[in-house]
Amino acid sequence: METGDDMTMRKKLLICLGVIIGGMMLLSADMRHLSAFEIQIGSRMLDTRKPMVALTFDDGPHPGITDEILKILDEYDSVATFFIVGERIEKNSEILKEMIRLNCELGHHTYSHQDMSRLSESELKHQLEMTQNVLNEVVDPQYVMKIARPTFGNTSTSLLNYMEFPLILWSIDTRDWSHKNKDKSVAEVLMHVQDGDVILMHDDYQATLEATRILVPELIQRGYQLVTVSELFTYKQIELLPSRIYKSAHSMVS
Ligand SMILES: [Zn+2]
Predict the structure, then answer these.
(1) CA triple 38-249-231, angle to 5 deg
(2) By CB count within 10 A, which of 156, 171, 183, 245 is most buried?
(3) Residue 202 catalytic?
(4) What's the mean pLDDT when you consider all of the chain?
(5) Which DSSP string do the residues of the chain spell out, in sequence order?
(6) Is 89 inside any structural domain?
(7) C-alpha 156 – ligand 1 centre gap (Å)
(8) Residue 126 maps to which CATH number?
(9) Is residue 26 part of a domain?
(10) Would you say residue 101 lies in a domain?
(11) Is 173 a catalytic residue?
């Protein structure tokens, strides 16, 4: 005969067991849930729920600057986007090959840094085609650029009418070309940075290289993942459409 105490003890044990098994099931369900947000890109593991920003560099490549920026990105398993000038491709093909090897993104910025907003449709097409063709001839026969940054940040109705790529502006302007001061660039980014930002810099200044050396580890330390422009918009579920202007991938809910 079991006593009342034995019965109570058995019930308690069963309840404990139930709680433990239930907890384990919940935990494993949560772990499966977690992995659905993680994406492996090369050696990088992106968590699409965590903050991300895109560093962008215009007007390069420039030897001694761009290649050093790539070393920093590689060291921290991060990537950036480079809006390249077509006429600089041939002399800097090795730097561009390294960008592609590291899964960085390349985007249009015209062949000879022309003001896109003032070009005719045929002139613009020519500038973009020349850049893409040289890139395929001397760097990578497969790589296709899918985004563009308007030179000088200038847009016009005519540009919007015939541009066949999404136009990527920015949400943080370091103004590095103007002050050429690493501390000012770093401060501008760290004071304003938020999830979904597109950060504008230029890879033709020593001060920008030095700012990048500080910013990359610091942004990572603050919980940001450094991604390309296309990755940023993809994982924020914003479709990039031709002839549209994009400044950031900030959440629509603020
Ligand atoms: Zn430019």
Answers:
(1) 40
(2) 171
(3) yes
(4) 91
(5) ---HHHHHHHHHHHHHHHHHHHHHHHHHHHHHHHHTTEEEETTEEEETTS-EEEEEEES---TTTHHHHHHHHHHTT---EEEE-GGGTGGGHHHHHHHHHTT-EEEE--SS---GGGS-HHHHHHHHHHHHHHHHHHT-SS-----B--GGG---HHHHHH--S-EE--SEE--HHHH--HHHHHHHHHHH--TT-EEEEETT-HHHHHHHHHHHHHHHHTT-EE--HHHHHHHTT----TT-EE-----S--
(6) yes
(7) 16
(8) 3.20.20.370
(9) no
(10) yes
(11) no
* Ligand 1 centroid – CA 82 distance (Å): 11
Question: What's the average model confidence in pLDDT over 86-103?
Answer: 98
Q: What digits encode the pLDDT tens for the residues 50-64? A: 999 999 999 999 999
With CA atoms as reference, report the closest residue to 56 among 84, 77, 75: 84
Total domain count, the chain: 1
Is there a domain that residue 31 lies in?
no
Tokens 């005719």 label which residue?
120
Q: Mind listing the pLDDT tens digit for each residue in 154-172?
A: 999 999 999 999 999 999 9
Distance in Å, CA 214 to ligand 1 centroid: 23
Residue 55: which domain range?
46-246
